[in-house]
Specification:
The chain has 13 helices and 16 strands. The protein has about 450 residues and is α/β, with parallel strands linked by helices.
Length: about 450
């Protein structure tokens, strides 16, 4: 007979163990302790069911424990768990490198480096760009997020909580404004935010760092951690043109936007932009630690032999999972499903926006959708406390989701792309009730 654990006992145990064994800087967004998952649903130790709109912060696009992925992992683990690419090559690494180069946007020869995490991919992309150009400086965007390692966090354009406790940051990193139509800079019209951002880069070249000293510009096609900010059309094409004029490597950080999330395999494809280097991670291997740097062959070949790699990069089991993920995308048409899910999510959030002034802005691309909450629609004062209470009410009510935003006032939705319409509707209903209660209490 199975003994059920009371939810309050699980929460109490989690709090005690977290305080005892985990560092304060490692945040956990809820008191849920997941025991198992399937598709777009997870269950805790007490057997309670949750609709998952967080998806491991975008890592579970093919869903939890997809049987095709599980079988690929099992089969590879029985054959070999690791050899290290520096010691001897293996088929999984080579096949995955080829397939990722084939699906990355743009014509011409491309090459692939496999690493462990998004931050590691970002750092290697910068290293490659510097080697290819012989330049040092990098331009990134305010509000961007590129990881928590030293160079990656220096590229990240959000102070708290990522950079607050770091006394020094990597040199030769410069930040410029990202087009944010809902919160344009003072004196800038929402329709002019793209022009303002591009001009800010040219101003940077004129005042702080000459263009001929800039190795790379790194950009998220949609800002992730800062609240799913979708730049107006023309921004990415403008960046591509600017980089071409100045001989700068354009790096697209598709760690969160990649693998169908925005309704295209990669978000840059919405503007038909081809970056010189594209970094990807998260849903690449259905939650296993794997990331990739894919780029133009001539750029990727800039480093000397031994300058790239790592002991665990491209682990055989993770590669097997990633190859299975690519198969699932093709067989189940998940890119197209992202468009359908996104339409349903936006309709639900837009309905809340019509009912409650608390919901100031609804935005997104494909199934990467968010609502920005404000205390006043005129002043657009961020509703951070309300966002936290809604977030907590959701997980207590059976819905996992994540907060985001420069001011901590954005609810972001990243459900697995295998989610059923019923699961999407159930999740939206829980969110709607949490918003209603919070708005009614104001």
């Amino acid at each position: 007979m199975t003994t059920r654990i009371a939810p309050h006992e699980i929460a109490s145990d989690l709090r005690a163990r977290r305080e005892r064994w985990l560092p304060r800087g490692l945040s956990i967004g809820s008191e849920v302790v997941v025991a198992r998952g399937r598709g777009a649903t997870v269950w805790d130790e007490a057997g309670k069911e949750y609709v998952d709109f967080a998806g491991g912060i975008g890592t579970m696009n093919v869903g939890h424990s997809h049987p095709v992925v599980v079988e690929a992992i099992r089969a590879q683990a029985e054959r070999s768990t690791h050899t290290c690419i520096h010691v001897a090559a293996y088929e999984g690494y080579l096949r995955l490198a080829e397939r990722l180069a084939e699906i990355a946007p743009g014509p011409g020869e491309k090459k692939t480096l496999l690493v462990n995490s998004g931050a590691e991919a970002v750092e290697n992309a910068i290293k490659i760009a510097r080697a290819a150009t012989g330049r040092a400086a990098v331009v990134a965007f305010r509000g961007g997020f590129h990881g928590r390692t030293f160079l990656a966090v220096s590229l990240t354009g959000k102070e708290r909580p990522y950079r607050t406790d770091i006394a020094q940051r990597a040199p030769d990193v410069y930040h410029v404004p990202y087009p944010y139509p809902y919160r344009p800079p003072a004196g800038v019209r929402p329709e002019d935010v793209v022009l303002h951002s591009l001009r800010s880069i040219e101003d940077l070249f004129a005042t702080e760092i000459a263009a001929e000293r800039v190795a790379a510009i790194i950009v998220e096609p949609v800002l992730g951690e800062s609240g799913f900010i979708v730049p107006p059309r023309g921004f990415l094409t403008g960046l591509r043109s600017l980089c071409d004029r100045h001989g700068i490597v354009l790096i697209a950080d598709e760690i969160q936007t990649g693998f169908g999330r925005t309704g295209r395999m990669f978000a840059v494809q919405h503007e038909n932009v081809v970056p010189d280097i594209l970094v990807m991670a998260k849903s690449l291997a259905a939650g296993l630690p794997l990331a990739a740097v894919v780029g133009r062959a001539d750029v990727m070949d800039a480093m000397e032999p031994g300058g790239l790699g790592g002991t665990y990069g491209g682990n055989p089991v993770a590669c097997a999972a990633a190859l299975a993920v690519l198969d699932v995308f093709e067989r189940e048409h998940l890119v197209e499903r992202a468009v359908e899910i996104g339409t349903r999510l936006r309709a639900g959030l837009t309905d809340l926006q019509r009912q409650w002034p608390l919901v100031g802005d609804v935005r997104g691309l494909g199934a990467m959708v968010a609502a920005e909450l404000v205390t006043d629609r005129t002043t657009r004062e961020p509703a951070k406390a309300q966002t936290e209470r809604i977030h907590d009410a959701c997980w207590k009510g059976g819905l996992l989701l994540a907060k985001a935003g420069l001011y901590g006032n954005v609810i972001r939705l990243l459900p697995p792309l295998v989610a059923s319409s019923d699961e999407i509707d159930r999740g939206l209903a829980i969110l709607a009730e949490a918003v209603r209660r919070e708005a009614a209490a104001a």
